Amino acid sequence: MAWIKISSTGFLQALAQRLVSGSVWSGESLKDLRKSDEQLADKVSRIEVLVAGNYVKRDEFERSIHRLFEKLDTIEMKLSDKVDRS
Predict the structure, then answer these.
(1) CB 18: neighbour CB atoms within 10 A?
(2) Side-chain-side CA neighbours of residue 21 (13 Å)
(3) How many CB atoms are located within 10 Å of the residue 24 CB?
(4) What is the pTM of this model?
(5) Cα gap 60→54, rounded to integer Å
(6) Which of 21, 47, 60, 65 has its CA 20 to 30 A from that of 29?
């Protein structure tokens, strides 16, 4: 590539000129990058919804915990009755 210079200053100047003139990024490659960016953003948002949808809801969790403690209370009462009979 003829526009690349040996020194970093020359390289940066040449790169800046190419960027300004638009010859580094053609219209098609920018469109491709935008399309790819939109697709990735869409995939990320679908993953966020999927992950958020798998959380246990608070009321569901509280009902489950309540049933668990009711069962533990029943077990405790049965054990207490057995100890009292001994």
Answers:
(1) 15
(2) 9
(3) 13
(4) 0.40
(5) 12
(6) 47
